[in-house]
Amino acid sequence: MTASTARSQPPAAAPQDVLTRGLAAGGQVRAIAARTTALTEEARRRHGLSPTATAALGRALTAVAMMGALLKGDERVMLQILGEGPLGHVVAEGDARGRVRGYVSHPDAHLPLNENGKLDVGGAVGGGQLVVIRDLGLREPYRGAVPLVSGEIAEDLAHYFTRSEQIPSAVALGVLVGADGQVLAAGGLLLQLMPGHTEELADVLTTRLSTVPPVTQLVQQGLTPAELLQKVLQDLGLDVLAEYPLTFACSCSKDRLAKALIALGKSELDELAGQPEGAELICRFCSTRYTFSPAELRQLRDSARQL
Ligand code: ZN
Is the pTM of this model over 0.70? Predict the structure, then answer.
């Protein structure tokens, strides 16, 4: 690379992340698209992700953002990519309000580019399982699992929908990382055939999808998620049903972690309170650090005693 090579645009210039959900072909196709550039960059910054880890987690975050669009109210969905490769597990969670969070077990893991010159997410994830957990507010959360097909996540998720939920689905997920590691573009597309669809329609969609440029290219060109859907669906007629912002947001707080500390019991708390520096806890999902001073830990120990 020479000194004259253009530097990537700072992500501060990226527009707000957004999701568009709609129906096409007279209700035969459920269509969702998302732009997730800013939230993927935030995940990268918070967790200190390598380029490969950025691509893997960005794809998973984009996936749960779109799966969250199929939920209602306080329902939540978690996607666990339980790979056996260098990244370890890739975990992402989303809700119906466009909030996502997630982490990678080994944020530093990075592989050379694959033979197509792309970040080798499949190699870094490796073989393993894809697990979807939907918390629908019932007594037991719904859980479905399939073996990973390629570890590239989009293909694995399409396989999950088709096999585990019997919904023929096409999934595209993409994260474009610049030379300096920053996220230049990220987004995704989820198309699902509804019951009663014609076989002809399935063929039409397959052909259209095979001719559309990669999602990241379209996002980088400035297409909105609605325009992205138009590009694929063309004359199939898109009815937009919802459009809302997406954000990286975590539900952790010092109070919640205090409760977790209390649950350790008083002898553990006594031991922690004995450390002059107190205790530091880091939220797995967002890497926020919470410190508890020895005095605070003694206070928690006292409330543990009252339990
Ligand atoms: Zn957190």
Answer: yes
